[in-house]
Amino acid sequence: MYKLAGELFPVCRSITGEGTRTTLRRIQKEIPHMIIHEIPTGTKVFDWTIPNEWEIEDAYIEDADGNIIVDFKQNNLHVVGYSSPIDEWVSLEELNKHLYSLPEYPDWIPYVTSYYKERWGFCVAHNQRMSLKDGQYHVIIKSKLFEGSLSYGELLIPGKSNKEIFLSTYVCHPSMANNELSGPVVQLELAKWIQNNKERKYSYRFIWVAETIGAITYLSRNLDTMKERIIAGYNLTCVGDERAVSYVSSKYGNTLADQAARNVLHFMYPEYISYDFLHRGSDERQYNAPGVELPVCSVCCSKYHEYPEYHTSADDMSLISPKGLQRAFDIYKEIIMSLEYNTKYKVNCYCEPQLGARGLYPTESFHRSSVTVKDMMDFIAYADGTQDLFQISNRIGVPVTRLHEIAQTLMAADLFSEVK
Amino acid sequence: MYKLAGELFPVCRSITGEGTRTTLRRIQKEIPHMIIHEIPTGTKVFDWTIPNEWEIEDAYIEDADGNIIVDFKQNNLHVVGYSSPIDEWVSLEELNKHLYSLPEYPDWIPYVTSYYKERWGFCVAHNQRMSLKDGQYHVIIKSKLFEGSLSYGELLIPGKSNKEIFLSTYVCHPSMANNELSGPVVQLELAKWIQNNKERKYSYRFIWVAETIGAITYLSRNLDTMKERIIAGYNLTCVGDERAVSYVSSKYGNTLADQAARNVLHFMYPEYISYDFLHRGSDERQYNAPGVELPVCSVCCSKYHEYPEYHTSADDMSLISPKGLQRAFDIYKEIIMSLEYNTKYKVNCYCEPQLGARGLYPTESFHRSSVTVKDMMDFIAYADGTQDLFQISNRIGVPVTRLHEIAQTLMAADLFSEVK
Amino acid sequence: MYKLAGELFPVCRSITGEGTRTTLRRIQKEIPHMIIHEIPTGTKVFDWTIPNEWEIEDAYIEDADGNIIVDFKQNNLHVVGYSSPIDEWVSLEELNKHLYSLPEYPDWIPYVTSYYKERWGFCVAHNQRMSLKDGQYHVIIKSKLFEGSLSYGELLIPGKSNKEIFLSTYVCHPSMANNELSGPVVQLELAKWIQNNKERKYSYRFIWVAETIGAITYLSRNLDTMKERIIAGYNLTCVGDERAVSYVSSKYGNTLADQAARNVLHFMYPEYISYDFLHRGSDERQYNAPGVELPVCSVCCSKYHEYPEYHTSADDMSLISPKGLQRAFDIYKEIIMSLEYNTKYKVNCYCEPQLGARGLYPTESFHRSSVTVKDMMDFIAYADGTQDLFQISNRIGVPVTRLHEIAQTLMAADLFSEVK
Fold this sequence. Notes:
Three copies of one chain form a homotrimer. Chain A contains twelve helices and 19 strands.
């Protein structure tokens, strides 16, 4: 995962254009069943219209002495995303109207875009900006805005049921690592793992889209099917660093996706940070919007908006790590397994079954000896057919994946039945 | 408000009689549409019977030397309310059986009544009582109890809907300011303000009654209509001082009146004191009684029973202030506006609307720049037609009156519809 | 109670056999209507089979010098319950495989059983075990396992209604006092008290059974009737010491039995310890099992598993006391009275009734004077026919037995009616 993220890091992605297409094709090499869709610019998608493609060849600022002082080729964050073309000499005063920098982090270049209004601009380190002397500057942006298409990748993996688990991430950010190359690569790894897991109960829908406009475009084409089929979904973003583990609630925090995420995090990372939906900020906005109402929440590492390097050049490959990516993968894997296993069970007899006769219980009663079978006994006590595994797990403090193992043992002993 | 309270302060009010009638007529001068009802004494009202009118001309205690030591004309609290007439010489021992004083506040005269049993008595400062010497005292009370009527004022202001907001206060307390001239004058000011607010959605029912017997009388004549129409009601009492802001819950604390009061106080006076219904003590007792079950709670300043001057001569015009009365008026105004504005909205499109295209959103995305439109975005996120403004306000932390403004903007942009 | 417990203490009880029968017959002497049932060994009871009777005549360990070093006649805990017969010389190494002791409490003999697998063994003080020297030991257990029956006692006391309150305790533990002679004797005392209380509303079902197998046997023969009739039940165990007061919840903690137990303990022992169902350990396991689902919880003194002497020889007659047993009796008595009294009341009039006219309220209103009738007024405020006495008690902070007294007064004054 880390290696692929590093390979994709230099690509200049945006909500449309070749950078995104390059990224999608690279992912497709790993999972050939993924389809890359192209939706023409100008298409109405709900309340929005897909904007033109943006292509940039070069951009720089030259001082009066002919020195190139800011260069897009050094870092693609230097240019405001979707900047219109320009080739002019401007005064420092005029230039400053088009510069963006972060006084609180004077060495970092901020990430700025202007998708829906024509603008041009450069993003620079604040220290460099402060060192600029009065005089004329030559600003050059060789960009084009033109009709084309918006691209996204989609992979459907069928399961026994046509009910779906949905995973979404975005591929529209230029050279930043945690936000957002971690999401695309972790989601790819999950897709490969699920393809290999032939025993799956549910179908899986994965999409790699542009944030906001891509999610809206996808929804505008698939909403009815999604509402009918999706039982739980997650927006994968900022899943690469090793700092916090975070959870962002769905709109009302009560969906199956939320239950699974909170349950799994409680056991794996009990110190995780729980954010209300008021702290949302990525495509869970669209998936939870009025009228859409899909059961989608998010599990992140250090969450967007909550770490200093967010949307700056400091969100680079040193911020994420193989270990951080693997940690996120393991959490999502446990969530997916818990969803796969979740069901209701009922004991086949009245009263407690005689486990001792079946070799499932110590046959000698000694001071506190029964501790070792406590999980099994607690599970049996609540296996009355009214509670699903998440409810029982929360109540008795045993992970769903462990309950699943116990249930297999008890099914084999003909003591448990699944309640359909 | 303060001036009118001062004018009414010396009047000797009781649950029936001329003092109350004088007060009601003075209020009627300000709002001529108010009707003064007269219900004959002896009328059965639910479990009660309206007691006789009480009139008092004079009352005093004279010592053996002919000095008037306690004089009703100095302070009408000196006589126990509804005292029967007397003209006798009594020993100090006998007199003491008819004296009421407060050892813990030795300079204050307590307020005592005996409406439903014939008694006579005087209320005095404890210091004065302690200074009385053995000997004979001449006690004179020139009072009458006779058939007449109980009076109350009623004002109905129609709105677009016949659903009503109900405000009630009482006019049966003699010379005390916070409890209770503040309620009558604040309620009068609210009535005048609503009369001038032509855009009102709801109808308004205001009553000025005697506490307990007046409220019961009013209910006995109007209960069916009230149960059918009233959506929220408040009992106005102790709304004149500048100390605490208090809320007294309805019986189960779950009515629209409670929701509105708690919501408004949360934003205006987050440090307000919340009292359970077990701390009730005024006419919310009747409005919440079994079989009555009206949605009525109360917002006070320093609540009855909770401030030392309560029911004593120290509850005088210095305890209340123009600022205190205005503060209470402003709270009730905000509650009423919130009730008027409360409704459900639904976004007209799927996914988030494109606010930028409508000039409602910054068109350049910069590190954390969207904070300024956060309220609007949060409102849109929950405008799914299932939540009323109080629910959304509590959830996203924005006052209902501010949500109303935002909703107007979004309705004008054709993005919001009201859900009927 | 303490005297009878002392009398029964030396009897060697087990889940079947003469010890239990002796105990049941002694109880029957006090309540002749109790029936002793005998269910043949080998009978299938749900998932279980009643095991053979066990009889033990003698058991000891002799050292090479002929000294009897461990003697069943000294303490019947010395032999593992249901030990098979043996008469052999064994090495110390071999002997140690059959010895049980408690290193953390080196002077106490543990209580060990092996009902469902053939074993022999001795329980000894750890200090004694450590002092054993290498050599040969003569182990002798003169026991028999044979076909017979499982015994239990049952007492049904009919009431006006055929709805039942259920009390269960167990008589299968050898010489231990808190666990478990306290339960049998406290339950006996409750049965005698209820027989004498002719005014009872409910019927009462009492059983004295073997733990687990006895409860399962009883359920297998009575489940349908029990599910139809029992409104609340309690498992009586560890009700003899003077230390903690404890409550063990039912499976979901929401039954009438739980409500009554928590309500009564809140007033009588507000510092009581509340245990979740995860801390269950006695016959509430069977009564709450899937498919059984009876409303049964437990109130204990120092709860099983939670005091050091539990299941050891230190749980002797010095651990319990007449005062401790009486305390438990008084709690269960208050619970039963609260259940008997629990009902819904409705005020017969609209608004507050005029209590003064009926001598139920002070006729003179004086500064805070109404405190004395606060309980009555609060009760009236919530007597709207929707709340039972437990709900009102929890809300207004007045015990159910006190509410019952107030209700009788108000019924006599024709102000209250019971809601059927």
